[in-house]
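Z., the sequence and structure:
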Amino acid sequence: MAEQGLESKDSKFTYKVNGTQFDSESEFLTARQILEMAAKAGVIPGKPDEYYLEGDKGRYKDDDKIDLQEDSIFITIPHTPTPVASRNRV
């Protein structure tokens, strides 16, 4: 079972992308906003539009609004194989 998004005393909502924790003042963010923050923090290489965001509720589209109280742990998946994955194909 996944951890639930936690609201702290100062009304910040916590979520994780690829194991890195982020805080938001908003309970709701779009998948695109989460990907942009992850890219800005260096959590994903490349551009946000090169990735999908996936959480407990499945894969999100860029404009999907996410309730951080319901889904707060995410991984990013590239749209195309990464250079390392491409080299290792048999």
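Residues 1-9 have pLDDT under 50 and may be disordered. The longest helix spans residues 31-40.

Let me know what you think.
H.
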